[in-house]
Amino acid sequence: MKHQEQGLNELYNVLEPNGMEQINTIDILKAAVQNNPSAWTELGAAYRATRQFSESISAYKQAIIANPGEYAAYEMLAEVFHVRAEHQNSIKILENSPREGFETEALARLGCAHRLFDEAKAIHCFERSVELNPDFASPYKRLADIYVLRGEQDRAIEMYMLNIEDAGRMDL
Length: 172
Prior knowledge:
This protein is mainly alpha-helical. It has a domain at 107-172: Serine Threonine Protein Phosphatase 5, Tetratricopeptide repeat, CATH 1.25.40.10. 75% of the residues lie in helices and 0% in strands. The chain is elongated and about 55 Å long.
């Protein structure tokens, strides 16, 4: 991205030899993504990667406006709130996200968010995720981590073993 931005800046220097203000690369991207939710989501990710969280939040919200079913935008928006230690906002976003086609992943993500504040809700989300898709490895590991912290080593080992089995099936 840095190399690409440098190339664009050189192009603008050629086009604007009088040293006029250069167009910001982000502004160009914004113009290109007006009604494209996936592009807004990618723009949000670019902002997030540079720790421009307010701009990232705005981009994810634009993705959701463009397509209220854009699950990735909800997921990434929740992640930004999590990074900013706004955990309750993260949970609200995940609880209200559309889940059609992403139920298993959404429940696992919600379980991770709840884990900080409500272990019982986290466990429920992980167990429900496993019920919906027994081949999805992530919730097994998350459950095992909780059981380790509780001192329930036998249950933890069982979950870690299921995580390994399912991760192996997913790699095939």
